[in-house]
Amino acid sequence: MKTFVDSAGRSWTLTVNVDALRRVRQLTGVNPVADLVDGTLFDSLATDPVLLCDLLYAVCKPQADAVGVSSEQFGQAMIGDAIHDATMAFLESLVDFFPTARRNVLQKLLARIKEADKSQLELAEVKLKQLEQKLGEESSSLPESSALTPAP
Question: 69, 91, 93, 143: least CB-packed within 10 angstroms?
């Protein structure tokens, strides 16, 4: 079981089992097991934070009901690092759901996805530094502001 903390400071434990997956399917119409196996789940979660939140809420619904947290309140607390942490906790919990042979393959896939995400962030940092350097060079070649002011 994996946990994450939302931006309201509430801790959530993700237990992915058949009951939770049934609840996900009933509440969202998504079959995360099939989508994980065919490779579409990662892209969907990476590009659709609303879907991610809906899936998480469905998994956490018994806990949410016990503490009186509505779907809206749950969604309002899903911002910033909570989204990343919840995504990783959900994916790891989903991978752990599978029997050993398939779990081992999916753990390798998840590790590669994490590596690719890290590489993309590093590439973005390099591009940002290059852009900052280029902008710095361009601004140093501009005339002084007084030269742009017309003479009286």
Answer: 143
**Residue 95 one-letter amino acid:** V
Cα(68)–Cα(71) distance, integer angstroms:
10
* Residue at 147 is within a domain: no
Range of the domain at 16: 2-141
Contact predicate 64/74, CB 8 Å: yes
Residue 101 lies in a domain: yes
Please answer whether residues 56 and 74 qualify as being in contact, where contact means their C-beta atoms are separated by less than 8 angstroms.
yes
Residue at 149 is within a domain: no
Contact 106, 98 (CB under 8 A): yes
| pLDDT 10s digits, 37-83 | 787 887 888 889 999 999 999 999 999 999 999 999 999 999 999 99
96 membership: H or E segment, kind and range: helix 81-97
Q: What's the pTM value of the predicted model, to 2 decimals?
A: 0.73
Question: Among candidates 4, 23, 24, which has minimal Cα distance to 14?
Answer: 4
Count up the domains in the chain and report the number: 1
SS3 (DSSP) at 76:
helix
